[in-house]
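re: that chain from earlier
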Amino acid sequence: MFRVTKEKQLDFPLVVELAGQYGVPLIVQLTPEDDAFFRHALDCEPLHLLNAQSDAQLIELVRLHMNSASDEVESGNLKKRISELEQQTYQLLEESEEAIAYQLEGLHIYANRAYQQMMEVSDATDLQTLSLLELAQGTEEDIKSILREISGGKFPEDSVRAKIRTTRGAEFNANLMFSPALMNGEECIQVRVRRQDSDVPLRHETEQSSEPDPVAGLSNRQVFIHELQAFVTQCQQEDKKGSLLYMEPENASRLARSMGFCAFNQVSTDLAAAISQHLSKQDLATPLGECAFAVLFKEDKGQRAAATFDEVVRSLGETGLNDVNIRAGMTPIATQTLSADEAMEQARLAFADAPTEGNSLARFKPQPPESGEQHDDQQWSDRIRHALNSESFYSVQVA
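^ sequence. v structure.
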């Protein structure tokens, strides 16, 4: 700030020069008597001219400059963060194995390394003079018509089949996926290109993951868990009912040690075969361990699960395994079941409560609180949900 006095008028040009050199806002206070100097000060920049007799003007201007400085710092930080994000995005694009390019007005403005390799170009600048129409020809749809619709803001929902011809003349079939994008602040089109033959390993892996367990001949665990969670969600939304059964031989670890690996493995195989024999088309079963199995019964209130358990025990007896006892736990699945994890946990808890002598099946029931234990809301909620699921309405007596 510079307050004009007769003694300081000679210093004013130097002060203005220094303020401009260092980018410092200059505030000059004048009195109404400084008319001649006022006209001279108007020719100098950058500065603010204030009435020296008004402190309010000075306070307001200082406040504005402080706010402006704070905004500039924040803006600088945001610009720095945006620059960092842009660099990270470019790095991710360059490292991506998916071929991705951005196009503006029909020409390439950016292509990542995978796209350049796929189109067999040695330098990104080689693509700048090429349009997608020179590289792709629709096999079922007209690429030119699709690009015309995209320019009008209508993007295809599904991938577009096309035949790609690289800059070196190689040809292959691909799926093109279009989506709106921004590049350097300009609206453009993102194009992702995926060779159709590159989907073969993924499809093979997917097919393998859905194949039955090779030993037990039942659903593999991944498929079973997915179907269990899907059925839980369906029960919540459509008021369906089902049940989950968990079973394994009594004291399986001791039995394995006493029988030996080969004999115990045969028990597991026979148990899996017995379970598979008595399943309907809509039911699913999967091995969960050396000799543990879970069975999902859809459209069941527990009767089919119990009947199936009895049939499995009878079938095992027919194979000569009368000395192997099977324990099982069962829980209902209905609108109040929260998740597949909860259903599986309840079936395991019911298994733990099953009698340890002979073949036995136990149904899940929440454990009543011990005498003197505080009954919190969660305990009441769990017991009420189970009562609604199992249709076993009962009153809870509090001692």
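The radius of gyration is 38 Å.
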